[in-house]
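Open question from group meeting: does this chain pack into something compact, or does most of it stay loose? Before anyone orders reagents, we agreed to write out a predicted structure and look at it together. Recording both the input and the output here so the notebook holds the full record.
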Amino acid sequence: MAETGTLDADHRQIEDDLIARRYFEKLRLISTTLPGVLAETVRDQLFTRTEVEVIGFYLDAMLRSADALSMKYLVSGRVDGPLRRFLTIDVHESGYPVWSEIAQMAADAAQATDQLARTADAKQIKDDMIRQIVGDLTIPTRLQYAMSQRLYYETLAKGGLFWPQMHPQAYWLSDAGHRRRWLVHWAVYDSQLNLPVVYLMDCDDSGRRPLAEDSKRWPEVQAHLMAQSVTTLQLVTIAQGFDRDFDKLHPYRLRRMLLGPIYSQQFTTQEGPIKEVLDNARAPSGEDWAVALTIEDLQAERAIMESTGFFGVTERQIFKLDPLGLGGAGQGASAVERALVLPARPYQSLAELDPPGFRKIRKYVPLPDGRVTAYR
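C-alpha cells returned:
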C-alpha cells in the first residue's frame, strides 16, 4: 500500500485510493458530528438556534464537497497518462483539501451540464463494464474511471457545495421601529489557511427599502463583504470599513468562525500538546481525530452621531475591544472563544495529560449514541 507522497512541508498528495477513501470517510464523520456540537453551543450561549441553522448550511455544503471530491478521486490513481491524478491535502495547518482543489471543483461545476451531456450515462457505462468483464475477462479500469467522473459531475450539477466564495445572504430577524434587523452571513474557503471560514454579521437597516430587496445597496454590500473576507484582516477593520461605507446600515456584531484545523494521526502532522494527546490516546481509526474551532467576536459598545457633509449626520458604531488582548491576543475583537471537538478516547487522554494551554478551551465530546457532552 502506497504511502502519501510529499509535495512540500505542508501539502501532501494521497496516492493510494484506499487511503483516500479513508480520508473522505473521516471528513464525512467529522461533518456529521459537528451539527450535534453546534446544538450544544446553543446551551453554552455561543450561538442562537437561528445561527446554528445558518452554520449547519455551510457544514452541509462541506459534506457535499467531500462527496464530490471522493467521486473525482475514486479510481483516478489507477489510470495511466494525463488522467492520473491525486487528492492534495494540507497536512499541517488545516487537515482539509488545499484551496486549489475547491477552486478547481468550482471551475468544473461551471461546465458540469455540458460535460454530462457529452458523456455516456451511468446505465451505458455499467453495460460496457459488464461486457468487458465477461467478454475480455479484464478489469474495466477506464470504465470505472468514467463512471466515477460521471458521478462527480452529477454531484456538481446538483449544487449546494462549498465554493471558494459563498456570497452573502441576508436573514431577516425583526423590525424595530423604523429599522429592520438582519443576520447577514457568508463564507470563504481561505486560500492561506485552507480552511472553511464562516462570517455572521448582525446589523440594523435604516434604509427605505429592505436590504435584501434593495437592488442598489445589496449588490454593493455583497461585493464589499466578499472583498474584506480575508483572515489576515482584523474584525474591527472589517466592521469599521462596512460601517463607514454604508450610512444606512449599522453593524453591531460581527463574528468569524474557523472550522478547523482537523488533527488526525493518519493524515496530518501534529506538533506540541495535541500530538501528545493523540499519541497517548491510541484510539482506533474512527476516533483518532480532533477538530479545533475558533470564534472571533466583535460587538459594538455604543453608537455616536457623526457629521457628514455640511448638513448631514449619520450613526457610527464604537466597537468594544479586549483591552488586554487576553481573549484574542490583539486580534481586533471583543473576545475570542476556542473549542476542541474530540471523541472519548482522545478526550480521556487530554484529561490525563492536562496540558496548560487546553485548560480554558471548551471541549465537546461526541458520544456513540449521538449525544454530545460539553466540558470546560
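Observations to bring back to the group:
The chain is about 40% helix and 30% strand.
Residues 5-158 form one domain.
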